[in-house]
What we know:
The structure holds 2 protein chains of 2 kinds. Chain A is an alpha/beta fold. Chain A contains 13 helices and 10 strands.
Amino acid sequence: MSNNTTKKFINDHSTEQAKKEAILRKPQVVSQNQSVSVKTKIRVENLNFFYGNVKALNNINLGVAENSVTAIIGPSGCGKSTFIRVLNRMNELVPHTRVEGKVFLDGHNIFDPCCDVVEIRRKVGMVFQKPNPFAKSIYENIAYGLRVNGLKDPNVIEEKVIQSLEKAALLSEVKDRLHDSALRLSGGQQQRLCIARCLAVEPSVILFDEPCASLDPISTAKIEELILDLKKQYTIVIVTHNMQQAARVSDVTGFFLMGELIEFGPTEKIFTAPSDKRTEAYITGRFG
Amino acid sequence: MQRLREKIYRWIFTILAFASLIFLVGIILFLFKESLPLFRYVPVGDFLLGTAWYPTHEEAEFGILPLIVASLWVTLGALVICVPLGVGSALYIHELASARQRAFLKPLIEILASIPSVVYGFFGMVIAAPFLQQLLKLPTGLCAFTASVMLGIMAVPTVTSIAEDALSCVPNSFREASLAVGANRWQTLTQVVLPAAGSGISTAIILGMSRAIGETMTVLMVAGGAAVMPRSFFDPVRPMTSTIAAEMGEAAVGSLHYNALFSIGLILFLITLIFNILAEIISRRFRLKLGLGR
Ligand SMILES: Nc1ncnc2c1ncn2[C@@H]1O[C@H](COP(=O)(O)OP(=O)(O)OP(=O)(O)O)[C@@H](O)[C@H]1O
Ligand SMILES: [Mg+2]
């Protein structure tokens, strides 16, 4: 397990510079066998983010391997949401914000002026902290994403809607009322619907922002199961306040504190032998 | 001492709060009292559906259908103008404009609301009507069309500000959810935001209508004033409001004509009341739908 996860964490050091930085920051990882090449899906370089004059992210550097689950943990207000909302450029909808640095998705900087933001969001799906289905029917909630992506054939759409509901483990509960309002579903069902909506458009990365925050243990277990399953096809970044959850689902964990990435490495290592005192303090529940 | 003071304040505010209710009830009672005597001589059916309005003839006739139709006619025309303009500006200001454009546009539209209606009327009479007359070779530029244009422009601020409220009630999470599945701004706007704000926007439209139908001075000045059934938008018409305003001065107090004018007022009041109740029902349902309670 440990070996496997570290392999995934190895980055394809595209530049000599990046390599040096990586060595400086996380020697424990780079010292691993580099011959196994795992594709880096997302690479974040010197990322800063500002709300007005307030710096919410300070010089973040990390890489996310393809088909891995990366957990982001840290106390409330440390910038977890800000971080993942940068990855699909959702945060630029907030007025008076500014971003510095680079985020490479499949090798292309998403802040490049010639980059199409709609295209990025299509590739990088997101499930929000609070379930946010549209005020439409269950069916339409999913079909909408397919239609805006250019799908027209109603048969194909129907097929994909059913498939996504199935994948999100919701189909059995809603198959008799696909045309009821999505707002009448329970919170956990709504969240799974949002996951289905996200899966339907077939992104390659899925960002989860505390997807289980408003869910009961049973729904939570279902979603965790789902995430482990999704890992086969998608690259996943998940923000969570739940240490057990991070330990259960992720390969790699990043610990944020006051806008900084304090520690980033294999989940097992972070939870058993963190190299930073602050990480240890947070994980053992001594603050946060 | 302190307690007494608090009690007094309480009373003062209670009285103030109920004052408008008292006025409302007073006005309604007065409307009924002054209009009901008419129906001792003129059957309600003849009044509402009669097409001849000759209140001062020897054989006086009190059919207000042409007046009702005229009111609805110009209101309909006004809608055609104020709905696209009002809803469009609300969408632009709320969803598309940059902060700077918004800071500039919002006050501008509010200024539109602060122009006195007599100024609109004057403008319509002196500029819009002659222009239209020449352009379309009409016998007169003072007609339903001109009135509709002026009323439409006047109702824009009402529609815009209420439609904007409706848009700001649409949670941001809807927009984010839509953009997150790869929808562009336009798709998000037309397929998620607008439907979610839909009934709020209908409320805006209904209130814009009641604003237009109740407007008096402008229509009195530009609608032409002929109390006959209009056959086209370019016929001069005489809406209910301008009939009351124009004739109240010459109707002898207590005469049938006087009562008839009050009855028109009553009908007008009922129509706007219905509009407002509709708007209220729709907007309540809208809030429920978005889970906003209230
Ligand atoms: N829209 C905003 N405008 C201004 N400041 C913001 C905004 N959103 C977040 N912040 C600030 O940025 C910092 C990071 O917030 P963020 O939402 O990323 O925290 P978080 O780690 O997700 O917290 P939580 O666990 O409570 O969700 C906080 O100090 C917060 O006050
Ligand atoms: Mg958060």
